[in-house]
Amino acid sequence: MENLDMSQLKSIASRCSEYSPNGLQLTSSTNSNDVACTNCEHYENSKCSLGLIDQILTNLR
Length: 61
Ligand code: SF4
Known about the structure:
Layout lengths: L5 H10 L27 E2 L2 E2 L3 H9 L1
Antiparallel strand pairs: 1-2
Helix pairs in contact: 1-2
The chain binds iron/sulfur cluster (SF4).
The site of iron/sulfur cluster has 14 residues, from helix 1 and helix 2.
């Protein structure tokens, strides 16, 4: 799996139908609206556990 930068992870999450905020941000006043794979509960070990990153990335190119 290639390394993705934050802007890519945001673009992917904003297009992803399975994006699910992991809730770790709670009431934090900063960045609480950031949609990115890193904030998704399906994101594990720098990968999407549903395997959607590659699929969406392909459509971004
Ligand atoms: S981690 Fe997977 S399910 Fe979550 S937003 Fe990214 S591509 Fe979608």
